[in-house]
Amino acid sequence: QVPPARCALFDPAFSAREAAALEALGLRLLPENEEGKHGVGGSATLFYMVHCGKALYNNLLWSNWSPAALSKLVIIGNSFRGIEERLLSRILERDYSYIAKVLKGTEELALPSHPRYLDTFNDTSVHWFPLDKLQKLSPEVWDFVEEPTYQDCEDLEIIRK
């Protein structure tokens, strides 16, 4: 069991009433839009990011870009394999390079679909990053740590600061 005070939440679409209700439940709201750039800080952390844009996943990976940090991270969100299948590889590597680079170090398990919500949660997976798989990636993978900017990205699905 995770105590509510250890749960941090952020959604730029939270209304004042929603924020007040969440705080009344003892949950901690992040004070600003981090654009997904939230570090795990050495603790095992679950990120529930269903229906988020690719840039949020990419930013999260960038902000935790080391085998030690990524191995403490679990993401429930859109399938990385699905992202890889739907995007041209040159676009994936140019705009979402951290997703592209970590694919071989990722374990992914698709959540079962429910007949009532086929078009809603059909692409949801659990992702984790086993340390042994991350350590087998080429050392060059870890050398490039430039912050993503999305200058040339045509389909940016992120609410900016």
What is the fold's blueprint, element by element?
Elements (H helix, E strand, L loop, with lengths): L7 E2 L6 H9 L3 E2 L15 E5 L4 H10 L3 H4 L2 E6 L1 H7 L2 H7 L1 H6 L4 E4 L13 E5 L2 H5 L3 H5 L18
Parallel strand pairs: 1-2, 3-4
Antiparallel strand pairs: 4-6, 5-6
GO cellular component, one term: cytoplasm
Family: Belongs to the SRR1 family.
Pfam family, one: SRR1
Account of the 3D structure:
Residues 5-128 form the SRR1-like domain. It comes from Sclerurus mexicanus. InterPro entries: SRR1-like, SRR1L. By secondary structure, this protein is of the alpha/beta class. Helices cover 33% and strands 15% of the residues. Strand 1, helix 1 and strand 2 form a beta-alpha-beta unit.
- Form type: globular
State mean pLDDT (0 to 100 scale). 91
Distance from first to last alpha carbon: 32 Å
In spatial order, strands of the major sheet run 3-4-6-5
Q: How much strand content do the residues show?
A: 5-15%
State the major sheet.
4 strands, mixed
Low-confidence segments: none
What is the string of SSEs from the N terminus onward? Answer: EHEEHHEHHHEEHH
Roughly what percent helix?
25-40%
Q: How many individual helices?
A: 8
Question: What is the gyration radius calculated from CA atoms?
Answer: 16 Å
Number of domains: 2
Instruction: Specify the structural class.
Output: alpha/beta
DSSP, total strands = 6
Pfam family, one: SRR1
InterPro entries: SRR1-like (IPR012942), SRR1L (IPR040044)
Domain SRR1-like: 5-128
Family: Belongs to the SRR1 family.
